[in-house]
Design a protein that fits this description.
- The protein has 14 helices and 17 strands.
- With 406 residues, it is α/β, with parallel strands linked by helices.
- A hairpin with a 2-residue loop joins strand 11 and strand 12.
- Bound molecules: 4'-deoxy-4'-aminopyridoxal-5'-phosphate.
Length: 406
Amino acid sequence: PPRLDVVRLRQDFPILYQTVHGKPLVYLDNAATSQKPRSVIETETRYYGEINANVHRGVHTLSQRATDAFEAARDTVRRFINAARHEEIVFVRGTTEAINLVAASFGQRLQPGDEILITEMEHHSNIVPWQLLCERSGAVLRVAPIDDTGELKLDEFARLLSPATRLVAVTQLSNALGTVNPVRQLIELAHAAGAVVLVDGAQAVAHRPVDVQALDCDFYAFSGHKLYGPTGIGVLYGKGALLESMPPYQGGGDMIRQVSFAGTTYNDLPYKFEAGTPNIAGAIGLGAAIDYLNTLGLPVVAAHEQALLAAATAQAMQIPGLRLIGTARDKASILAFTLEGVHPHDVGTILDLEGVAVRAGHHCAMPVMAHFGLPATVRASFALYNTAEEVDVLMHAIRKAREVFG
Ligand code: PMP
């Protein structure tokens, strides 16, 4: 199988060429946000330097160019997740806004006694919007538990589905554990119960090829910035008929057809859900990020990251006092752990002194921390530009933290 030429492709990421505390930067906080290739940075610069104008309004040339580039980016996203139709791709701020959009709009059809099913491993952004919706609607939030390896308990998930379940919201890849959920199977179970399914793809899109038609999910949400694209841009995919049937999310320019004080009619999809001037540069930058990833090939990237994770896991298991948090059979890109006798934040600080950027904290998944009885973990997360040498540096730094505090 083809292999990634990591030495060459690292040159596409200017930020990687710096030292931190006198040590070469080893960036392993990719689950929080990924670095951007030069093509993405240059695409945004070129947009502002050459074609900046507002979209969908102007008859003038720049406005048409900006509109064409913006809509071309939408089509790049459509192809990337294999959505059937252009209008099923709604640009939003990120995963968080995508989920809040569904909660605000689709959520209006929920009634007292209806149920929303999530899992114990969700990110706060796939918990809190549903709690707020339950407060508004009288619906009830159900939570499918995980086991001590960080896998979803499938039998419990199936047992919690009922005719009352209106919506299932589940992550494809846990940012705190690395667990990859069998979303295809979960969606089938949920559909059999008559529920609509939202997949949180914030972590998954950068690490696994996604085909929303093959998954048959009703909604799919992700952020550009974890996919080597800009911050402030993300995507909500929704099945056309479903989006069509939903009321608008925010009101404003671009989402209307006709406005009068007697009443307002709404624009076609996807514009009905895109009130106001969008993040035009961000959308075009996201398109460039997807183009970049496509030239490498996501399966090749995934194989590379999987090899790094396997090497890191094997080495971590040799470190006395290190406890892996998240040992699911199907896992991707994330190595979370604790170190006996050392607070995760202290581990993070020592690692930073060695140039190694990791995250220490609850990872916006406090229920996961609660499950394992921990205040926090240390999380290293891998991306396409990481190397086996960087895994070695990470392990060396962890051993150093043990020595300092041990
Ligand atoms: N879901 C998951 C699984 C995530 O990892 C994240 C980001 N950490 C989010 C949702 C939220 O994404 P954003 O902050 O980009 O909206």
